[in-house]
Design a protein that fits this description.
Rossmann fold; binds adenosine-5'-triphosphate; alpha/beta; 4-stranded antiparallel sheet
Length: 238
């Protein structure tokens, strides 16, 4: 479970908080998609869960553990897939997975790691090829396999499908749905309304560091979500 409790961040010298008493809960087996315009506070939220930055007030809880109070315990339960998954180009997908699994303190035999890469959708013949030749979608799949190998209970994703072609984005959405069904709590930041509707059990729209609207998966269709988003920001743009 991921939970933000009155989570607030004011960067040094800023007039207004980037994040202003955010409250949100992502129970196990749910995908919360966070939408919002540039500067709304989405990445700040992610960075607080990862303890890359410290909150000014409030808490970012990972499975009940305050990320700022016990960062290593929180990180042990949380996997992060950024827009660009950083891997060692000279190593194969399998070797990267072995390396990142080992440094996280987890252990898995080679055959299990190969199975995880396959479960994440990496083509079998790619697993032992150098990552330098991987597409962005293939790197994302290694990122998912790393999360699986670490047995993370929660997953945070920042713009995971930007730059993926529609087929790869669709495959990625299916993968997230599988992780959700297996009980993972997923927080996904995206600008892609279609992906949010496809993956989200809940969809939040952020504005100026606050959640301006939250929808359940069945509350809106794709068009309704787009209309709600545009209505929220049309007056600001006018
Ligand atoms: N390190 C920083 N120092 C000062 N201000 C920052 C810093 N990082 C972000 N901000 C400010 O905090 C606010 C929220 O930024 P944030 O990156 O969280 O937005 P975002 O919703 O992720 O935007 P985007 O969609 O462009 O990634 C913005 O006003 C931004 O300028």
């Amino acid at each position: 479970m991921l939970e933000a409790r009155n989570l607030t961040k004011r960067y040094d010298g800023a007039n207004a908080p980037a994040l202003d008493r955010l409250n949100l809960t992502v129970p196990d087996g749910e995908v919360f998609c966070l939408l919002g315009p540039n500067g709304a506070g989405k990445t700040t939220t992610v960075n607080l869960f990862l303890n890359f930055i410290q909150p000014t007030a409030g808490q970012a809880l990972v499975c009940g553990i305050d990320a700022a109070v016990d960062p290593s315990a929180a990180r042990a339960r949380l996997a992060y897939i950024p827009e660009q998954v950083m891997l060692y180009g000279a190593l194969s997908g399998l070797e990267n997975l072995q390396y990142f699994t080992e440094i996280s303190g987890a252990e898995a035999p080679r055959e299990s790691l190969l199975s995880l890469l396959a479960a994440a959708g990496l083509p079998k013949d790619a697993a032992q090829r150098s990552v330098r030749g991987y597409s962005k979608g293939m790197r994302q799949k290694v990122g998912v396999a790393i999360a699986l190998a670490r047995r993370a209970q929660a997953l945070v994703l920042d713009e995971p499908t930007s730059g993926l072609d529609p087929l790869a984005a669709n495959e990625f959405a299916a993968l997230i749905e599988r992780l959700r069904k297996e009980g993972m709590a997923v927080l996904m930041v995206t600008h892609d309304l279609f992906l949010a509707k496809q993956c989200g059990t809940k969809i939040g729209i952020m504005a100026q560091g606050r959640l301006a609207s939250v929808f359940g998966a069945d509350d809106v269709d794709h068009l309704g979500l787009e209309r709600a988003y545009l209505d929220l920001f049309a007056s600001a743009a006018a």
